[in-house]
Structure formats: structure tokens, C-alpha cells
Amino acid sequence: MSDAGRTPGAREMQVPMLDLQAQYRPIRDAILEAVVRVCDSQRFILGPEVEGLERELAAYLGVEHAVGVSSGTDALLAAMMALGIGPGDEVVTSTYSFFATAGCVSRLGARPVFVDIDPVSCNIDPGAIAAAVTPRTKAIVPVHLYGQSAELDAILAVASRAGVPVIEDAAQAIGATYHGRKVGGFGLAGCFSFFPSKNLGAFGDGGLVATNDEALAASVRRLRMHGADRQYYHEVVGGNFRLDALQAAVLRVKLPHLEAWAGARRRNAARYDALFDEFGLAGRVTPPAVLPGRGHVFNQYVVRVPDRDRVKAHLEERRVGAAVYYPVPFHQLTCFASLGYRAGQFPHAERAARETLALPVYAELTADEQRYVVEVVAEALERAA
Q: For residue 227, is it left (φ>0), alpha (ψ between -120 and 50) or beta?
């Protein structure tokens, strides 16, 4: 490895983007006990573990109903199916998110209508939503990106004027708050993911639909069972969207730790902010902004840096994990070319796609590891100077 451009005396250290082993080790015995409990019961599909998790998550989120499903993607899909979204309908959402946000709309034969983001938070721009609503709009899907709530008051006001429901894509934001209330219960439905890298991660795929609407909850429960309330009697065409008992048991062990983990992520984020100031990187590294009234849970800690791809390559060379969320906005993806969007149409999202970089922020990250990460970022920027 070349030493060119290296800060004199810089240390060598390995810092992964995420260390699930560090989270697992302290709760290993409780996890194994839960898994054995399911194995001994031989009840693997739905059943008491899923029902228990649903009760506990409903209480945690402050909603009336929580319906476990097979993934965050299927949470979005089932919520949209419950609303009858289909051909001829439009769904307004951000052009800057994980693919499932838009992909579920297209899978139902509806048209995703993309809008730009707020350049400060990278969340959807409420003003752009208002301009995109038409008589064909069947739902608005804001994304609580990176673990910070979107501007829900403004979004809900737009939805109310238009007479359309809001489906919150909270896949990255379990536990995040908006003016003191947890996200996921503001719209008609909130959709969560339990992918292993999430703040509350399963040992595989899993998801949740949260709602205060009894009819919607009943519809999602029906849809997750191929559209049947009882076996072989199908009222509608649904899917196999069930959360399995093993995943539910694991999540029940983890849920009591979620607030502490989120608190550690917030402390790590604040430490990064201070370190970037200490290293004199203000103006060259832009840390994430936490907006007023938001309780950010930092599923990702995302900065803006010049020459992002070169900085990322240097981090990886120095054994520091980093990731790009998301390098191509939806309106520039090949699969959505037929929608007729053009490059330059959503400049804030396109700029974020070029400049943003996620750094390790998991709860078990040490202060020494964070200092090393910032040292290596400083090295990368010095090389470009």
C-alpha cells in the first residue's frame, strides 16, 4: 500500500460499516433461548411469537395495530394493495430512496410520480408534493430517510387538501420522532423494515405495517395470507407476506434494547460532528442536519464531501467501511425511463447522489474508531488539495 498522501503518524485500524457481531455478542444467550423456544414449539408461521411482537411494537410505536409481514418491501406493497392502488393510479413519492419505495408502485401497475428532495435533510420536499398531486393521485409516500422524519405537518396538510392517504415509508426510521411522536402513526399506514442492517434488525427479512385504522389492518392481515381470512376461502388475491416466528422471536429480544441503541447512535453522530470541527473540516465535510422537532435515529450517518467516490475509495483502502445511499435517483434509472423524466429535472436529488457518503455509526462504535474514521477522511481531502 502506498504511503503517498498519508497523514504522518496515522494509525492503522479496521472499522467496518456495520458490525452485527458486536450487537449480537451481549444478547447471544437471550437470542438462542428465543430460537430454541420456537424450535421446541414447532410453530414457525405466525402464531404466538408474531402476535407477541405485534402487541409490543404497537405499544412501542403508539399505534392501534401492528401487522408483521415478510419484509419492508412487502409492507409497502401490502399497504398499497389494501388501498386498491392499481392501473391508472398515481403515487407521489421521492425520487431519492431505496428502490422498493417506487418499485412497489410499478408492480401494481400504477405510476410513480417522482419529486425532488429538500437539500438540507434529503427528505421529500412538501412543496414539490403539492405541485405533483393530480386527480389520479391515490397516495403520497414520504420517506423518513436515513432515520429522520420528513416534514409531516406540511405533507399531511397537502394530503388532506387533496383527499388522499399518506403511507409513511419508515423502513429506516423505527423509533424516530416528529415533535415527540414516533413516526409510522401519522399517516394511514407506516411501513417498517427489519432487514438485518436496520436499527431493529432480524436474522433475515421482515417488516411491519403500523396503522390506527382497523379496516386497513384487517385488509393487510388478509392480504398477507393470500387474501383469505380463513384457509381456502379467498376474498381477494393477496400474497404470502407473513412474518415467520423465528424472526419475530429474535426481534422480541432486540426490541427492549432499541432505545439504548438509538441513543448510542445519536452520541456517535454528535461525536462525528465535533471531530469534523476539531479537524478543521467545516466547509469541506457537511454533516447531517437534525431539523427542529426531529428525533433522528441515525440508521445512517450521511455527510456530503467533494469528490465523494475518491474519498470513499481512500476510506476503503484504509480499511474503513463507507457506503453510498443512493447513487442513481429513481428518475434516472433505466427501468423508469418510460416515465419520461429527464436528467436535471430534480437537481437536489441528483446532487445528493453525487456527494453523499455514509460513515459507520452503529451503536457499538468506539470513540477511538470514530477518530480514526475522521483522520482518514481528512487524509483523503488533503490528497485532493
A: left
Alpha helices in the chain (DSSP H): 20-41, 48-61, 72-82, 100-107, 126-132, 152-162, 214-223, 245-254, 258-278, 308-317, 347-355, 367-384
Of 242, 168, 167, 254, nearest in space to 205 by CA: 242
User: In order of start, what are the domains of the chain with their CATH numbers?
Assistant: 24-255 (3.40.640.10), 257-384 (3.90.1150.10)
pLDDT digits (tens, 9 = 90+) for 276-314: 999 999 899 999 999 999 999 999 999 999 999 999 999
The answer, yes or no, to whether the previous bond of 24 is cis (omega within 30 of 0) is: no
What is the rounded CA–CA span in Å between residue 117 and residue 303? 16
Cβ neighbors of 13 (< 8 A, separation 6 or more) are 319, 368, 369, 372
Say what the pLDDT of residue 7 is. Answer: 46
Q: Is 199 in contact with 268 (CB distance < 8 Å)?
A: no
What φ, ψ does residue 114 adopt, rounded to 5°?
A: -90, 145
- Taking each helix axis from N to C end, the angle separating 245-254 and 48-61, rounded to the nearest 10 degrees, works out to 40
| Alpha carbon distance 188, 79 (integer Å) | 9
For the question of whether the overall pTM of this predicted structure is more than 0.90, the answer is: yes
Are the C-beta atoms of 54 and 68 separated by less than 8 Å? yes
Q: How far apart are CA 14 and CA 318, in angstroms?
A: 8
Cell of residue 58, nine digits: 404497537
pLDDT in tens, 27-61: 999 999 999 999 999 999 999 999 999 999 999 99
